[in-house]
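Researcher: I need the complex structure. Ligand is LARABZUK. Inputs:
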Amino acid sequence: METSGEIAPAVESILSAARDRGGGDERLSVDGRSLTAAFDRAEDEGRVPVIAEVKPTSPTTDGERTDDPVELAGEMIRGGAAALSVLTEPEHFGGSPATLERVRAAVDVPVLRKDFLLYEAQLDVVEADVVLLIARFLREDGTDDLGELIAAARDRGFQVLVETHTEAEVETALAAGAEVIGINNRDLTELAVDLSTFETVAPSVPEGITLIAESGIATPGDVTRMRTAGADACLIGSAIMDGDVRQNTERLTNL
Ligand SMILES: O=C(O)c1ccccc1NCC(=O)[C@H](O)[C@H](O)COP(=O)(O)O
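Model: Output:
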């Protein structure tokens, strides 16, 4: 696989592991819960639409949270999360497809599969309502084409969140048919977060696209900042996972 020197070693390692991970044995067919309907429901009930992320660890986190992910997910819902994101990447994030399966069976909100999917067969590993496709990674040699992967995911019943970091990637995502776009504030070179990334890139996303601010959102002020810049929803991991998950979620959804 061709990788660029602009990518952090941890990300190179994530990509290399993703390339080696296999796919599912059978083509899945999913009856998904609507992400946009979940966002509308949260808004109607006076909550900020937040996708709370079950993220046991990560390359930028010290230690690992070992509580039962199903209990954590329940606390996130009780705290007002509109949807959940569950890491299924095992080696760098402590996730697993089995965790996602258990969490999704225990809740009635949409669940995003947070992983680094590079090939169509990797869609068939576990059912989820939404899958993440990262525009930057799908231009590497030997990966499937973003547009083809979006179509393959939709054929199976998945909704697709296409993650971007730049205006050029937003253009690529739109050309590939994305309807839900995330702008990630964590750069892939230093893994540093900067909320101005979302503010800079968001104006390139047209009306009618569901827009999600990802990473580095830690305070109610950060949520307000992302909403003011055009976010329909915020994807929040570390700030919810660090401490009392229910209280943290409440603090970030009830503004
Ligand atoms: O979170 C990391 O350390 C990380 C490192 C390398 C590649 C991706 C990484 N995170 C993936 C994510 O997009 C975040 O888990 C998600 O947006 C939540 O971010 P945060 O609220 O900052 O935990």
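Model: Summary of the prediction. The mean pLDDT is 96.
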